[in-house]
Amino acid sequence: MSSAVDNHEDQVLDDFLAEPAQDRLTLELYLKRYPQHAGALLDLFTAVTLTPPVSTASPSSADEAWLGRAVGRMRRRYEAAADPFQNVAPQAYAALRTRLGVRSATLTGFRDRQVELGSVPQRFLQQLADALGASVDALRAYLAQPPRLAVQSYRAETAPQAQGAKVSFEALLAAANEPPEVRDRLLSETDG
Fold first, then answer.
1. How far apart are CA 164 and CA 141, in angstroms?
2. pLDDT attached to residue 120
3. What are the structural domain ranges in the chain?
4. How far is Cα 55 from Cα 67, in angstroms, rounded to an integer?
5. Which of 19 and 164 is assigned the larger pLDDT?
6. What 3-state class would DSSP assign to 121?
7. Which of 123, 124, 140 has its CA nearest to residue 84?
8. Residue of 192, 166, 161 lying closest to 110 (CA atoms)
9. Cα–Cα distance between 108 and 103 in angstroms, integer?
10. DSSP state, residue 145
11. What are the backbone angles phi and psi of residue 40, rounded to the nearest 5°?
């Protein structure tokens, strides 16, 4: 316990809380020693005795189920946004290009998320997802992210940044110098 010299109210209250028990006997002892702080001691005693103890019970099964569902949703979102191009080796990239009948620059536009997702025909998205071994939803989630640059070495002091605006599928095909017949084929595809 504190000596009579330490009678500042905050110190007295701290000392009361530091006692092994904040029961009625301890309160009476402090009231006798520090009558000038009786109001503050009574307020503190009331607050301490009326505060429910902190529960250390384990979470209920409903809490665990809710948490499990939340973690599952987070995991699915994370997996859905995974890079489907991540494990495509250079030889597989060439085969992918051939299978889809497009130029490298067109695939690079998709890899670097440079294309507006809403401008790409569903049939081409499905073909690309199948060729990558990914679901259409996973490909959509990936393409919905901001544009990026592929990891490359560079000599500048700061890394180059991806352009902020995405381009339409048609503009991507034009920029990739796809032949007119390829552009017509890819742009005329319908969801059927």
1. 18
2. 93
3. 9-50, 83-188
4. 19
5. 19
6. coil
7. 140
8. 166
9. 9
10. S
11. -65, -40
Gap between the Cα atoms of 84 and 144, Å rounded: 13
Residues 82, 143 contacting (CB under 8 angstroms): no
Q: pTM here?
A: 0.53
Token pair of 94 as six digits = 């060439």
- Mean pLDDT across the chain, nearest whole number? 82
Cβ-defined contacts of 21-28 (< 8 Å, 24+)? 22/48, 22/49
For residue 177 the two structure tokens come to: 């110098």
The residue count of the chain comes to 192
pLDDT in tens, 73-122: 777 666 556 888 888 888 888 999 999 999 999 999 999 999 998 999 99
Are 173 and 186 a contacting pair, CB within 8 Å? yes
The helix (run of H) or strand (run of E) holding residue 64 is: helix 61-80
Amino acid at 181: E
Q: In whole angstroms, what is the distance from residue 145 CA to residue 84 CA? A: 13
